[in-house]
UniProtKB/TrEMBL annotation:
<comment type="similarity">
    <text>Belongs to the small heat shock protein (HSP20) family.</text>
</comment>
<dbReference type="InterPro" id="IPR008978">
    <property type="entry name" value="HSP20-like_chaperone"/>
</dbReference>
<dbReference type="Pfam" id="PF00011">
    <property type="entry name" value="HSP20"/>
</dbReference>
<dbReference type="InterPro" id="IPR031107">
    <property type="entry name" value="Small_HSP"/>
</dbReference>
<dbReference type="InterPro" id="IPR002068">
    <property type="entry name" value="A-crystallin/Hsp20_dom"/>
</dbReference>
<protein>
    <submittedName>
        <fullName>Hsp20/alpha crystallin family protein</fullName>
    </submittedName>
</protein>
<feature type="domain" description="SHSP">
    <location>
        <begin position="36"/>
        <end position="148"/>
    </location>
</feature>
Amino acid sequence: MALIRWEPAREIGSLQTEMNRLFSTFFEPAPLTGGEHPRSWTPAMDVVEQEDHYLIRADLPGVRQDDVAVELDGDALSISGERRAEHEAQDGGFMRVERATGSFRRVLTLPKGIDPESVAANFADGVLEVRIPKPAERRPRRVEIAVGDSPPLVEA
């Protein structure tokens, strides 16, 4: 009988692979076949913090502007919409359908104090951009440092 060396790292890798497979069956949508209702999908999104605002970019290829909604409720920004199928379900004719269709919804929590009237959105070339100005108290402020001979800032 041959001895096999036990390698814990290999066992952990195997366990991780099995856990990934298990979770993918729960969170990935089932294949769309004829007669099923549209499934949901999640668009790719970037959130960029700049000096005076946040910029959110969402890739929405194949989605019409009329099918997208951007809503701000308190400190929650909601981007939702629907990508409609470009084909009708039929018995034959398609070799493979991989592009997801159906509704989507992403909700992001924003810092307190965002002015809802200052939020602006633009939709061009399948990319939604939402610009959210930072609240005044959230903006970084540079503090000037006085030179040795300068008068003190606060009198004692």
